[in-house]
Each structure stands twice: as structure tokens, then as C-alpha cells.
Please model this.
Amino acid sequence: MAQHAPYRRLDAQHLVSSLSQLDARIRDRFPTAGLARVCQDLIAITQENSSRAAAIGKRDWWLWAGIILLLGISAAGLAQLIRLVDFTKTTPDNVYTLVQGIDAVIHIIFVTGGLLFFLVTVEDRLKRQRALKAIHELRSIIHVIDMHQLTKEPASILAGGPTTEHSPKRTLTAFELGRYLDYCSEMLSLVAKVAVLYAQSQPDPVIVDAVSDIERLTTNLSQKIWQKIMLVHAGPGGGDATPSSRVVSDET
Model:
């Protein structure tokens, strides 16, 4: 059973390897495309996030040492206060003092309990903040990828028609357009996998929800991209790589 354990978790190095292979494929087919530079940035982000996710998953022993020290000081102060209360005398004056002392002890116990809860959860909240910041960075690159495929419309294949002065420059074949869109879809899928690194390192409900949001976003965008791919394949020249079927620029 132990030998199968590595396959139950995403491996960050495998993600980097997949992205590096995708980057090579993009540069081979579209050497001047900005999409290749986006993929290279994503590789760097994945390497950074791999270290971040690993660090988030580890226990911060220095923080816990400080927490234990503060709790020890609080417990010592509470014990000293209890020692000052004389529970043996039953005179009216002492009963009043005893009630005041018990009230003070109860108040301190509640305050100490609140402090204990805050200190015990502070590490999770710090980790959550770091993870959400990194996930927001991934969300930004998702929209960058979406911008690169935004003008890659198969309408020119299906409907044709004259271009205008401000129309996108048409230089890709139908086959190349399909490959370009496929690379965008694959990159979106890998971004979602990078986000999962945080959920598996720190299964905090807020982090898991943020990762699920990333997965939904990439899935929705990939579905739109694949609709374009299906239109490209269905149109004339869908499997043709000749210059006569060129449709969209590869400069973005």
C-alpha cells in the first residue's frame, strides 16, 4: 500500500515538467507568440508556489514556542491569583472578598480561554492569508491566458467576410488555430492543478473554497475554448494546414 501513496497527491515537480513540455511545444509551433512567454511565467510561478505550498504545510515551531511561552505566563499568573484568595475563612468580610476573588478568577479564565483560542488559530489564519494571496495571483494569470485566446475566433472560417482597418491580423491556419486554442485550454487546466497544491498542503475550508473557485473558472473558460475548437474542426479547412486557410494572428 505504501508504494502507491505518492500517486495520491499532486507532485509539484511533475507539474513543472508538464508546463515545461507545454512551453516547448508552444515555442516549436508559435516561436513569436506571447502565449509562450505566459507559459514561461507560469512555470516560474509554479516553482514559487511549490515552495510556498510546502512551507504552508509545515508547522511553524517558532510561532508555537512563542504561543506556549505566553500560555505558560498566563497560567502562572492565574495560579498566583488563586493562591492569594483565602478559601478557609468564613467571616462576612472574607466572604465578600472571596466572591470578588472568584469573580476575578472566572473573568481571567474567560480572557485566558479567548487568548488561547486566538493563539492556537493564529497559525492557520496566517497560512490562509498567504495561500489566498498566491491563489489570487493564479486567478490573475488565468485571465491573462483568457485574453490571449479572446480574439482567436473561428468565425472567419465559418462566415468569411472582409476585414476592417482594426480587425485582428489573420496569419494562422485553421489547424494552427486549433492547436493554439488547445494549448490555452491545457495551460488553464495546469493552473488549476497548481492551485490544488495549496488545498492538499493546508485543507482549510476557506482555501479549499478558493481552489474550487479557480477550478470552476478554468473549467468554464476551457469549455468556451473547446466550443471554438469544435467550430474550427467543423469548418472548411479544419484539418488543413495550408496558407489558404489562415485565420488568426499568432503574435498575441
About this structure: Residues 240-251 have pLDDT under 50 and may be disordered. Helices lie at 12-29, 34-57, 61-84, 92-150, 155-158, 174-201, 205-234.
